[in-house]
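Researcher: Next entry: Crp/Fnr family transcriptional regulator (Paenimyroides ceti).
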Amino acid sequence: MEQIRKYFDKTFKLTEYEWQVFSCKLIKQDFPKKHILLEAGQIENNLSFIESGILRSYIPKEENDLTFGFSFSNSFVSGYNSFLTRKPSIYNIQALKRTTLWQLSYDDLQEIYRQTKIGNAIGRKASEELFLKKSQRELSLLNETAEQRYLNLFTEQPELIKEIPLKYIASYIGITPQALSRIRRRIS
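Model: Predicted structure:
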């Protein structure tokens, strides 16, 4: 839990009261590798902070799933559109390795908003991070080659990318696994 406090202290200082209101609502959850945290058709009820692990967001398809996001330690993850609208998600979120999350329910977040001044800043910080991740992904797909997208992912998380199966990385950058193999051979 100290990890999430340090994360927030970088941006703003929580009073002891604000931290107590916030931290008493957090629930620590451990998930095994391959666990589906959110399944298409479910309503997302949690905004989660990743203490450790790697998560994949994807649209399930009969032939090949469409991976559109990875989330790593020290960041937020959520089926955020479902979380906000209270409507079913159209995608899954899966643990790619053993993952530890600190989760905050939708109702508890609303309570934090009501009880503290800093609550809105906490919610804003999480939503801004999720929005920026989504924007960067969209701009990357529009402006960069598959090789550039691969190199960016490799630069951002070099030690962790080795733990992501190549078929998910290929899907994420919008190419086949065979094309990814060619890119990897070319740049090595």
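Model: Note for the record: Strands lie at 27-31, 36-38, 46-52, 54-59, 66-72, 76-77, 92-95, 99-105.
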